[in-house]
Amino acid sequence: MNVLIIKHVEIEGPGLIENCLKQENILYQILNLNSNIHLPKLDDFTHIVILGGPMNVYEEDRYPFLREEDLFIKEAIQRGKTILGICLGAQLIAKALGAKVFKAPVKETGWYDVSLTKIGSQDPLFSTLPKTFPVFQWHEDTFEIPKAGKLIATSSPIPHQAFRYGENAYGLQFHLEVTEDMIQEWMETYEEEFKGLHSTPLFSKAEIMTETEIKIETYTKRGMKFLKNFFR
């Protein structure tokens, strides 16, 4: 097994994913994708993990590497590679499968509950999770479920929170990979998002960090269990 982790910005790293891979002694490579970096050959990898980032999937003119990434994801899916997309990564998978990605009715930043669908409750990766559980969110876009895709988790007002395509491709709108330190760093780096210049998040920085302190231990255990199952 060899895992490729695609990272779009320095601050949004693999977090728990890297911790899990180290614990399980699984080979992995982190690729910091930008306009000067090209994606490697798929032959070298069994699993692909696509992380988040502040860009939108439809900003290919501003971020030309998104075009190459789109083709890379399409080929990976066609070849049956095991793929996990998180936030932007999930939106990129949805787009590669022909689904629309667009602005969500609200911007989700902080802790929100999602609920498993009937299919989600029977899914091999999600079936051990509670019917409803809190997740950490940081996004302004959402996606349609791709044709032949299965809705795994839902919420209100943004119903498409996780999906599966075939047996090997998963897209999660929420950030399963975050650690407490990562959340703290995002709060500081993306501070302008809390200043009300555009759409102000529902929760303040203080409220989000208080919730993080309460929820992060359980969230970490669930995340590690999910990831160990994914990499099996």
Concise synopsis of the structure shown:
With 232 residues, the protein is of the alpha/beta class. The protein has helices spanning 16-23, 65-78, 88-96, 118-122, 180-189, 205-230; strands spanning 2-7, 27-32, 47-50, 82-86, 101-116, 132-143, 149-154, 162-165, 169-172. The protein has a nine-stranded mixed sheet with strand order 2-1-3-4-9-8-7-5-6, with helices on both faces.
Write the layout of secondary structure elements.
Layout: E1 2-7, H1 16-23, E2 27-32, E3 47-50, H2 65-78, E4 82-86, H3 88-96, E5 101-116, H4 118-122, E6 132-143, E7 149-154, E8 162-165, E9 169-172, H5 180-189, H6 205-230
Parallel strand pairs: 1-2, 1-3, 3-4, 4-9
Antiparallel strand pairs: 5-6, 5-7, 7-8, 8-9
Structural notes for this entry:
The chain has 232 residues and is of the alpha/beta class. The chain has one domain (2-230): 3-Layer(aba) Sandwich (Rossmann fold). 31% of the residues lie in helices and 27% in strands. It is built from six helices and nine strands; from the N terminus they run βαββαβαβαββββαα. The chain has a nine-stranded mixed β-sheet with strand order 2-1-3-4-9-8-7-5-6, sandwiched between helices. α1 links the parallel β1 and β2 (27-32). α5 (180-189) crosses α6. The chain is globular and about 45 Å long.
